[in-house]
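Follow-up to my post from last week.
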Amino acid sequence: MGNTIHIQPLSRIEGHASIKIELDDQGNVDKTITHFSSIRGFEKYVQGKPAEEVTRIVTRICGICPWHHHLASTKAVDGCFNAKVAPAGHMLRECMQNMAHIHDKILHFYFLAGPDFIMGPDSDYSVRNVIGIAKAAPDLAKRVIKMRQLGQMMMEKFAGKVIHPVAAVPGGFSKSMSESQRRSLLNDSRELLDFAKFTIAYAKENIFPRYPDEMTSLGTINTGFIGTVGNDGSLNFYDGDIRLMKPDGSFNDFNAFSYLDHIGEHVVDVSYGKFPYAKSWEEGFSMDLDTPKGIYRSNCLARINVCDGISTPIAQKELEVFRNNFGRPAQHTLLYHWARLIELVYACEKTKELLENNDITGGKHRLNVMPQAGRGVGHVEAPRGTLIHDYTTDDNGCIVTANMIVGTTHNLAPISMSVEQSARLLIKNGKIDEGILNRVEMAVRAYDP
Amino acid sequence: MENDSLLKIAGECLNACSGCEIALLNIGETLLDLLPKLDFVHFPILMDHKYYGQLGEKSAIDIPHAAAGIVSGGIRNEDHLAIATEMRKKCDVLISLGTCATHGGIPAMANAFTTEDLLDQYYTTKSTKPGATIPFNGVPKLLDRCYALDEHIKVDIYLPGCPPHPDQIGGAIFALLRGDKLKLPFRSVCDTCPTIRKGKGNIKQIKRFITTPQFDPQKPIDEMECLLEQGYLCSGPVTKAGCSDGCSGGYSSSYSDEYAKNNGGIPRCLGARVPCRGCYGPVKQDGNQLLDMLNALASNGIDINTLPDRDSLLRFSGAHNRLICKKESNK
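User reply:
Got it. Predicted complex:
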């Protein structure tokens, strides 16, 4: 028996996870195990609660993407109550949904993953973080901190609470947007769009070319992809059909209401988190690196792969550059970072587009709803992937059952595989060092779990 | 600058969602004034210090000594307990950050159920492959319920809020740097709420928040009638103040400046014209939001039987044996 290497905790990620790498007698990788160790059980404790309250409980599934849980949940309750949604309320929700992607992508690129690239994967852990960046590149850090905060502030100054929001309600939105608020937010979105354009140019010039090996080999696996597309097949964060793409690029679109026909969840004994797989491919579940079965990925790279195009001009140009370089579907795991920045541009452009439309300030923002028995499936694209909330209610409009498949969950099997791939790639003859172990984590961080 | 002259900080996120850490970042540009005075020695969401050494070579958890430890999240499993214990051992001052740490928070809603029921539900949902066994291999064993930090370790400073206001986090760090005593709000959300209250209303029943309250969207919030007096359940009377600006003992980040320009000091949810649900926990650290609210409603002549769900009044403060399991899993 050889050694076992423990990486615990995985850091600069949102969740709780650890990695075990078992080496054989020659010091080569025999086996890797990725433990996802957090479980809270929202499915149980929302039972019996008035459904309209659940929209402001499930936000606590994630403090980085609470808006997406809030909105998917609100859409699910609309469905349970058979509620009509006020047109302005619908626009306000879509606007918040896109805005909420902006701060998240800045956070991940600069604060969480960025230190590996800006400071370098082999730099000392004491400086391989955002504080290290603040010292090494103070002007950049200042701008980043300001822009990330602006992404949050613009939501808070309109919607009251940005972390764990409350403003989406069944039937619409809790308040309307005034003309002066619209103009102010529009200005903010322009500033953020400038920053998004700067960021993708900066990354393409200064970051990605510095790491050609990592970009094309680290964590690379061969899988399918999932994401939401609008009627015309274009990228959409808020609404549309779910598109499930096979590794060969062929795909199938379906309405979120029928997700159970397409997605199943596999349970492994080493992880509290469940591992979703493509049930409709009828090939079962396997994380074998050479012949994976039922494995697909979510989050930005997945959305960039499944969409036929992007409806906003600058992001569309970036998509074309990306596809010319890497094809469709692109499988290299570190391309998640590149895809994330295309989405950052899209989120800013889309927010700006929604705020340029005066209809967002007009008409009713909210219609009253009537609690009743029903089933609703609400889905949006959270930063980490297709987010599904599926509720049934009783005659009083209280929750009977709730099922949620959250964005990162789709990626738990792929993350485990990318860990195994990168460990096998990097660990030879018992030689390990901090840089090697950090690179294994970089394969995880690409997924922004 | 010598690292020895800096304030050493260790951070941990236990049974929580990372929202508190995002609130910390929301301090914004003034964070850049704080950072040069701080030395982060352990903080998994932001940096790569590992429990068992950087190569995983140690056999026990080892967190470096720090002047201040910031812990978000409650204690739900054996790992949380071990980490919380180590943080207490290594940190001179321990701050419990956010309502999950101070009162259990939303995850302590689980305390109304047995752990077995919780796990059974999660591993038998309709998308889960039937016949799953509950994970056991290398994952931390769950404790019987979700605990607030001070049920297991001594806490020096309580910063509730879901999430806490960035000014309070910044203010706490600033106070530690200067050796000042931290000033925190001690009143209720209602004391910071600008809505119009006329005294005892004519409301006898509590309405669910499925209709639009009376307010003119074009007019500021101080022209809106109190939502509780409009008949909507609002936990403002029994919830600690702090979510609005100007409650933070004088520390003001760039966050607050920007927000206050647009909002003045308005409780966050009220800013969205939505009633408070109690995310800062009880007004007094050991208060009981459920009992206090039932009292408040009853003394105003409101029929407490019209509340659709009483446990919801403890949705943020279910630790400390406030929320207890009523159902047994006898199948």
